[in-house]
Amino acid sequence: MTKMPHSITPESTPGDDSSRTVSQVDTVKSEPETQDVAMDDAPTPPATEKAKINLEELFDDEDSDGEFASSAPVVKEEDESSQPAPLKISPKSSFSDPEIMRAFYQRLFPFRPLFQWLNHSPAPTPAFAHREFAFTLPNDAYLRYQSFPTADLLRKQCIQMLPSRFEIGPQYSTNPRDRKTVRKASAFRPIMKELVFDIDMTDYDDIRTCCTGASICHKCWSFITMAIKVIDVALREDFGFKHILWVYSGRRGAHAWVCDKRARELDDQKRRSIAGYLELLKGGDNAGKKVNARRPLHPHIERSLAILKEHFQSCILAEQDPWATDAKAAHLLNLIPDTQLRAALQKKWDSSPHRPSAAKWSDIDALAKSGALSKSPKDLVEAKQDIVLEYTYPRLDAEVSKKLNHLLKSPFVIHPGTGRVCVPIDTRRVEEFDPLGVPTVTQLLGEIDAWKGEEGERKVQDWEKTSLKPYVDYFRRFVAGLMEEGKGVKREREEGDAMEF
Amino acid sequence: MIRHDYSRVDPKRRANIDHKKKQFATAEYQQLNYEHRLNFYDLPPTAEITLEEFETWAINRLKVLSELEGCSFRNKGPEETAEYMKGILDKHLPLKSDSSRSQKLQDERRRDHYSHFILRLAFSSTEDLRRRFSRLETMLFRLRFKDDDPRERQGFVHSLNLEWDEVKEDEKRELREELLAASGQKKGDDQEWFKVDWERVPELVEQRRVLLKRGKAYVPQREQMSLVVAEFTRKLDDALELTARALPRLDEDDRLAPILAHLAQSFATPDAAYSSTDANIDGLSAIRATSIDTLAQNFPLCMRNLHMTLRENSHLKHYGRLQYSLFLKGIGLSLDECLVFWRRSFKLIDDDKFQKEYKYNIRHVYGDVGGDANRRGRGYTPYSCQKLLTEPAPGPGQTHGCPYRTYKPENLIPLLQRVGVNDRDVLKTVREDVGKQRYHVACNRVFEWSHKNEIKKVKEDGSWSVNDLDTIVHPNTYFKRSWLLKHLGEGNVGVVNGGEKMEE
């Protein structure tokens, strides 16, 4: 079987080319014109800020051993005990400045919960130590097969290399850093990873009318909201998964990480079958009708339809107005199986151009009732259901889910195009999630400085002073729940692992 | 299991020396009694057979398997395959049911049993062979399972002792609606359901043909086959893995190895059908990026469609690029020219983005970058029709694959008309072909129509043999043949000979 560069497979060597594969679409696209970010400034080094950093820290920096560390100005390397001096962030600072990135990794990134999340228990196990991390460096080089024995070492390398983002891959049978020393190629294979899903707005481009390309607004975010609702409930009720983490991808999509032990251990075939179970839309632009659901509807589709129906009225008909133009309305007509009804609708719409989609939608039933229907009403109902599904049912980037060794961007890293943190989405309040309200890294660093609270008995962590707090809290609760479940099997697993040392 | 040769050490005597082997030696003459027609091949055969039997039985089974593979290449449906295979099975590998009361019942089953294990030996050496063997054996098993006598089949399934929970009456009542909806059945036909972990029926889950509740799949009795087949495949895969590991330690003289090697060889993959010599077409000078537009006239519909989409949108999605780049590589476009081609075609994309996001993939296709295996193999081979027809269908915004399969007929016909196929009869039959899922037949029909004068000519003057005009099963063959036919009389007539390696 040939392996395509689409999914990142172990055969591509790390950093042998500065370019990279296109699979994580939204993480790669970096068109500068995003409407939601102030991008008017080219990255300007905040020269004015340098002066404010006090002298002591200049000396502190000397013991840093990183090759990348010295080029950037004066922020402390590895120090948790003393509070770093305030780093002044003006709204004009660009989020990709090395200084900003360093401050972010140093003060805000929740390495410890991230470690516990991937490790499933407090003491380091191969689940973390043999886990692949892939770094995208500031010069766009892509560094694969990184691994770290502990959270602190991961943190150290982040601070040293200042990756613009990093991705998380599977746990391998041997340490990824030792992959070239194993005797047989088969001794180095992926053995465990969370089951992941990627929903990206690009897949909605043919039905999205409000924005195009990389930009999003609240209107089109509802596509993602609908997708999360449908997928989440299916994973929980049908497959019985409990620990599902949804993460905002930083621009216009969302990722899901299913962390249950049962999900982590699925092989490629079973991942493929889950993806197939959840996929409904079939065919490219010329395949005609994309949804041809079998009747009676499968309970999963039936339930999804019930969830999506209400959104169809508000999000699709009213907000997206997908059939406003004649060309788009022609597509709607093609989806109606009844030739007689189709002709009647065509006639009606020709006479009143730019009739809104909601009116067109109700025309279908109105004309059908007035006798333009040659087929049975049941056929029409089913066709209409299919149309609702075509316009609302989740469109997954299924390739991401099918492979055990596929890498996916880590939660809490910064999206290099928008500066927003990839925060978890609380599914209990998924409707309230506002992608345009997610804090950017510059905003967060500013909040630390602006913090006026009291330092009590307990030291207040930097992230607690910012609007990142609710997200980190949510993540920690999630991880705690996951570790609780792991306790039962921990003993057994530790005994198994003892063999490897 | 081989009748011993007197010039050698008696294997039984050898076995007596070694106590470990002794335990096997006692089983040597144990004839298995085959109670059921179907077999999960759990136990290896232990009795002796002659070398000749060893070879002929294996070859007969191999014939059956390759015919089966042919059926899947030709996209035959299950009924068609069963129909086609009936005669072949009766001839090479008959396996009668108990009710036939045939005298040869045990004998047939023994053959089936032995030949399976011989081929297991022959095809366990590489991952690729293992996967193919397992796929074909599964197909064969499914075929036999389907036409087995229902009562005997029930007996066989019962003998397997698979652990399935039965769904109790009250649960059945409670979930009745959903159970029926999931299995797509009419109300009224009552039946039994099993409850298993969904991981055991991934096939059914993928097609959404079972009800899922909290990780349990409710499998209707009728889908039992899928469960049994999945179990069969799982066991076979595990066993093949074990065989592969045991193979180097095979306690063997030099009589079996050549036979096994020969068997494996005659089962060579048709997937590796493309050879680089196919890129050399006499009379066609080195292809440049600028000449693709002209050459596109000779492209098969799948590639022409990609080309037109590329010209319209100045962009193609990943799988489209992959399929098209491989094809272009196959017709002899060099990497440099290919990069130029894509760079110019992506008019709307600036250099920086092109370098970052697209260049690597194109170089990867040519084996210029990537892992060791990729570089050594000079990248991937151009996709065959078989590959294009079995790949997942394109999603929104994608245009790869075989248009005969991925396009709705209403959209396919205009597409064909756009590329100049306007004969009403041809379009009508193409529509019929496509309706019967005979995509390659449709494609060949279009080829024959659009080259009808040239084909007539070469047939008449005998410059092309029948083999040269065999069914096309590779887009690159399509191009090569089309180009040569359209350039007849330019000093390259007859150069096709030997050019059909793609189908081997």
List keywords for this structure.
heterodimer; A: alpha+beta; DNA primase, PRIM domain; 2 domains; five-stranded antiparallel sheet; 18 helices; globular; disordered N terminus; B: mainly alpha; Transcription Elongation Factor S-II, Chain A; 3 domains; four-stranded antiparallel sheet; 26 helices
Overview of the structural elements:
The complex is a heterodimer of chains A (501) and B (504). Chain A has helices spanning 25-28, 47-50, 55-60, 98-108, 111-119, 126-129, 151-161, 218-238, 261-264, 268-278, 299-320, 326-334, 339-351, 357-372, 377-392, 398-402, 441-450, 469-498; strands at residues 131-136, 142-146, 165-172, 190-192, 195-200, 244-248, 253-258, 408-409, 424-425. By secondary structure, chain A is an alpha+beta fold. Chain A has two domains: 88-275 and 397-451 and 460-496, DNA primase, PRIM domain; 297-392, no CATH class. In chain A, the strands form two sheets. In chain A, strands 1, 2, 3, 4 and 8 form a five-stranded antiparallel beta sheet that branches. The two termini of chain A are 34 Å apart. Chain B has 504 residues and is mainly alpha-helical. Chain B folds into three domains: 11-158 and 230-270, Transcription Elongation Factor S-II, Chain A (Up-down Bundle), CATH 1.20.930; 162-224; 272-503. Chain B is built from 26 helices and four strands. In chain B, helix 5 crosses helix 12. The longest helix of chain B has 23 residues, at 51-73. The relative contact order of chain B is 0.08. Residues 269-273 and 493-504 of chain B have low confidence and may be disordered. At the A-B interface, helix 10 and helix 11 of A face helix 9, helix 10, strand 3, helix 15 and helix 17 of B.
